Amino acid sequence: MNNNAFRNLSYGVYIISTWDGERPTGCTANSAMQITSSPATIAISINHDNYTNQCIEKSGRFAISILAEDSDPSIIGTFGFQTGKDVNKFDSVAYEVRGEMPVVKEGCAYVTCEVINKMETDTHTVFLGKVVDADVLSAGVPMTYAYYHKVVKGKSPKNAPTYIAEEPKEETKEEAKSIKYVCSVCGYVYDGDIPFEELPDDYKCPICKKPKAVFVKKEV
Hints:
The protein is mainly beta and 220 residues long. 10% of the residues lie in helices and 37% in strands. The chain has a 7-stranded antiparallel β-sheet.
């Protein structure tokens, strides 16, 4: 089976949020879809290992913040490459409460839902939610998963339902490998005009905000 066929499916980039008691928490996701229009229902897929999964189970509610192409890419890293069990991800991200749920301000739209059903798979829970509230926050263009990979140059967390391990490519004579600096946390590949060695010591990964020290040399 050629898993690369799945890359032709279309996805967005979302922040799924809920409450951990009185504290907001959430994670990055790319699998959210409208199931029905009347009544409006939405389905999301969250990995069993994500702390957000447990919190949605307890609260019975979730919100979807739809990110735009001009949203700060570090939001994706904040919610995608660390666990809400250890840190409050919303400490560094502006949010507001809409429909009684925490919503990221940089999103172009949001939807809040009450869980009405769920389905378990080997690795993920698919939550079905009845829409409680929704609104458009800006005229921004919604970010697609393809845009995140090709333009933002971000990588998928291993907990993502669409994660596919990179397969080694056979090198041809025309495709000589080059040395790049890659973030060991989120997989971001530095491709700037300034040589990586000349970047200031306080340089941080634009996706996960980790320091320059976590970057490693790799042939890509």
